[in-house]
Amino acid sequence: MKRLLSIVAISALVLGGLFFIAVKTVPGQNFLLNRAATAIAAQQDVTGEGLRVFVCGSAAPIPTPGRAQACVAVLTPEHFFVIDAGAGSANNLGLAGLPVDRLDGVLLTHFHSDHIADLPTLNVQAWATGHEGPLKVYGPPGVQQVVDGYNMALAQDRVYRSEHHGVSFMPPEYGVMEPVEHAKEARLEFGELTITAFEADHSPIDPAVSYRFDYQGRSVVITGDTIVTDRLRTMVDDADLLLTDALSLPIVETIKKGAEGGGRDRLAHILGDIQDYHAHTEHVIELTKNTGVKMTALYHLVPGPRNKVMENVFKRGFTDNMVLTHDGMWFELPADSDTIDVVD
User: Fold this and answer.
1) Residues 150-162: pLDDT tens digits?
2) Are 214 and 194 in contact (CB under 8 A)?
3) Which CATH number is 74's domain given?
4) What is the pLDDT of residues 208-264, one digit of tens each?
5) Rounded percentage of the chain residues whose pLDDT exceeds 70
6) Which of 129, 219, 259, 305 could link 267 by a cystine bridge, Cβ 3.0 to 4.6 Å?
């Protein structure tokens, strides 16, 4: 026993010494800094076949630790699109090392602030990393006004960055986002990738759309904000993966009652208003059971769970093919296959 204690004590001293050298000394700090710099500069490998889906934001506007607002990225070897860009999502895209210099465009489902707030940051990231030409922003009628407003607000920023880094390095015209309007029902073709916009029901918000991606025999539907509709049922019936807006009524009602009891009348009012224009978890469960969708993943969580108890409430009644997402989660769908790999 004494020998064991001695070994443990010596090991602790050695580890403590190594920790001190690595963290508290200049050579140790430089070694770790070089390792970190290599990781920071690395880009995500997107050369694999099939569709890959990255959750860059899984929360709604209600503040939630560790979760950005609504954002999903869809990648193929030849394509890269971001669906919505809520606050904090551009940071997640950067931390994941996704190649925003080759971003084909941002697709907006609607124009609530928690779906568009990080457009300027994402645009600057693309511009600074060498994106060829202006970043395209797709959306239903109204996208022109949103993009024009941001472009106007960022006019001085473009001047500063181009003058600082050089006009040839950051051409100011490349920093001006380009709006691309499509109808609420539309089909967009990008080589082997087909993106279908279809009408969502986020009433009274209009327009609102969802998007379906089809590529090499695989399919993904991303709803944005909506309730469950017959149109959504049709679009997901043969889909591989559904990422859907979801509201937990038990959690929202409990917080609402707490707000009423605590004199926070405005919060209680808002929590009452939001209940009829998001998909309730029980409706998402029913949709999953009664359509042919292979996997359903909940994002834009209302409210974003802050602990395991809230996560478990969200997952009440989940089927085996349902997932509660978090920021940084990947879904990989190899071409011409039935496999869906979930990578935490």
Assistant:
1) 999 999 999 999 9
2) yes
3) 3.60.15.10
4) 999 999 999 999 999 999 999 999 999 999 999 999 999 999 999 999 999 999 999
5) 90
6) 259
